[in-house]
Structure formats: structure tokens, C-alpha cells
What does this fold into?
Amino acid sequence: MASVDPAEKRRLFERLSSVREIVFGVQDGVLTTAGVLCGLSGAVSQHSQVALAALASTAAGALSMAAGAYLGARAETEVLHAELKVVRTDAASRPYTVQEGLLDELCKEGLSREAAYRVVKMLSTSPKALASTAEAKMFGLGGAMLGNPALDGVVMGIAFLVGALVPLLPYMLITVPRYDLGGALAATALTLFGVGYFEGWLAHRVDRWRSGMRFLAIAMSAAAAGYMIGLAISPLGATAG
Amino acid sequence: MLKPGDPAPPFDLECALDGRIARSSLAKISSELVLIFFYPRDFSFICPTEVTGFNKALKDFTAEETAIVGVSIDNVDSHLRWARELGGIAYPLLADPDGSLARAYGVFDDNEKVALRATFILDRKRKVAFSSSCPLNVGRSVVETLRIVRALRTGRLCPADWKPGVEFGPTDRDF
It folds into this structure.
């Protein structure tokens, strides 16, 4: 029988917590840049100007997403730390209350009252074990939920950059009009489908193709909308010029 | 919840006593006073402090002609295992699985489906001489319960925080 290494599993869960940043960052990078390219291609005729603007948008987007992820994760971690502190203080100052609460939760999960009592009694020999189990069972809080804000920010920023390069590189390398945007959109479509498929694989879904197609459909709708808006505002650019 | 002066509902229930199953009947208790304490559940973390607390003070209560009876909604098998877990309990733990006795004394918590942490002291006529209840998360004081038993047994006017050796109230003779 295959054994499960709890430490390995825990590391996997911790790595998976970065999946949100990676998926969100790549998807946003791809979508935003493809949208910018589509919009600007509709409004601006010069290839180099469009590429330059998309590059600037990518840099600003990556920094903004990294800062947003860092600040968001930091706020979440601070709130979680505060809640954990309250629980640990309670466990130290009012162990009976925590013991009774944990006992009730274990009974709800199917243990007999006597068995639950023995489990809680054993856990009570270590205040740390009692507190951490109470955090998880009574309040749904866990150490694995404590993210690393700096890492989250870096991962998000890099993911956005990588995502942004997907439509940007083909667009910059292909200088033939229309083919440039076509190449960018093809790379975008392929990548978005890949991200959706990857997310389906991580979630152990059987219909990973559907996952990929859903991602693709949403993304391409956003890109098409961006292009239409660009077309709609292009007369304004001509007037201003 | 019954109050001082109310007649105490009788009981005749299975109980765990000295490691075996027995029966306990209010009618057969001959002591001057009877202390009935309801507690929520066996195998919990506040109740044992009370159950063992009363057990440790059993000699003092016996010296005051007071029998002790513990009651919860657990069945008698649970009481037996619980008493064994606590190192043996020398007074009866009554099994009130349907909560009928707790309801008769007005201390059944319908939300939690357990008895409240309620204490009754019955006098010689088996009327309620004292009653009180604590929230489920707060254990009661064995020392205070013993003080009240001692005060009740004087039959005299006992001022606040009275205990043996302290003077009775100034109007004690009129009481």
C-alpha cells in the first residue's frame, strides 16, 4: 500500500496556496496585455507605438499586481494572526472552554462522547497541541493558511509578467500588420486554454478540456470587448490628433 | 426552576454507586438534608471538577447529615465508566436519560438537551430549602455549597458570608 508522507503532503498544500497567485497573475497578464494590444491596434496604426504602450502597461500591471497581492496577503495574514492569538490566549486562560468546544466538534464529526473526551484529554497534555487542534476544528483556522505576503507579491508579479509576455512577444516579433495581432491572439488563446487545463488537472477534474475551454471563452470575450472599445474610441484619437 | 419552599419531586432511578449499578430513591434517603446537583454531561471537562469536588467533600457533607446525589442525562453505563475514569465516586450518580427528573425540577435546557448546572438542597420534609443554577460553562463552588448546608442546618439567621464561628444576625432571636 502506498504510504502518504504527511510532511510532503503539507508542503504540497503550501505550494498549492501559490496556485491562486500563479493562475490569477498569468491569466491577468495575458488578458490585460492582449486586451491592450487589441484595443490599441484598433485605435493606433503604428506597430511600434502599440508595442511600446503594451510594454509600459505590462510593467505597470506587474508592479500593481505584485503590490496588490502583497498588501492583500499581508492584511489577511494580520487578521488571521490576530484571530489565532485570541484562540491561543483563550486556550491558555480558559482551557475548559476550549476543551468543551473541541469535544463538541469531535462529537459532531462522529466520535462517541467518551472517545472524544479521551482524545481531548490526551491533546490537553500539550497546550500547543490543544490550541492548534482547537484552531482547526472549532474555528477553521490553520497554520497552513498563513501565507507569505512577500512571496505572494513576487509570485504574482512574475506570473503577471510571464502572462503578459505571451501575447507581447509574438506581437513584437511579427511585424506584418494583422499577423502581429493574430499571432498574439493565437498565443493568448493557447496559453489561456493551457492555464484552464492546468487548473483542471490540479483540481483532479476529469473534464480538463472543458476547464480549458471555459478559461478560453471568458478570456477571448474580454479581448473581443477590448478590441470593440478600441474601435469605438479610435475616432476620438483622430479628432485629438 | 423550583424555588425554596416548593415540594421536591420524588425520584427512583438507576444509578452508578461504588462501581456498580444500583437504584436510588428519594423516599429511601434518610439523612436530614439532601443535596441534588444536576450537571450537563459525563465525559466533559467542567463537570468532573464538580463531581470529584463533591466526592472529596463527601465526608464533610455526611458530617452535616447531608446526602449527595448527582444527576445527568447520561445512562447508567456511562455513569459507571465515568465514575471509574474519575477514580471512583462514593455517592450515587443518577441516570436521567430522558431528562424527566431535570424537567420536574425545571432545569432542563431544551436547546442543549442537557440539565442545567443546578443545585438543590432539600430539607427534612423534602421541600426545597435552597436552589441555584450556573451557566453551563461555569462550575459551581463546593465550598460555598457546604457553607450553605451548614447555614441551613443552624435554622438561624445567617448574615452574608456566614460560616461556623461567625455570629448570627442581630435580629436572629426574632427569626
